[in-house]
Amino acid sequence: MTTSIRLQHEPIDIAAEVAKLAGARSDVGAVVTFTGICRSDEDGAAITALTLEYYQGMAEAEIARHVDEARARWPLLGVLVIHRYGRITPGENIVLVATASRHRQAAFAAAEFLMDYLKTRAPFWKQVETADATAWVEAKTADDAAAERWSAPPPRRDAAK
Question: What's the pTM?
Fold first, then answer.
């Protein structure tokens, strides 16, 4: 299985990264991608930029731990997680999660599982910059509720077709 986890300051070339994930493999039947993009507003207020910080070393290890859990839950052939840090302006990509599997259900579920984890438990901090202030973003109850559903026992791997 191909696994790649990167934290980077540079923009993400989504098409190139997804092409590398599946490559010339003939066993991949589905690739599911999620791209998080910086919006121009946060809770209705216009923003200038987001600044993302992370706990170096711990973030990579924690993401890898959750990728391993996704691999145990679903029959994956590839996983890619790229998360940016630093100052990001509206319209720029923030995160790419891509999963490859023989069947779409496993790829969809694994991508959603990984994104829910990144949104709620990964050691990242987000600061919003407006024209006249900056503020750290608090966790959202809805994101926590979405992640909570994964606490149930994982499905049987052979059932994800």
Answer: 0.87
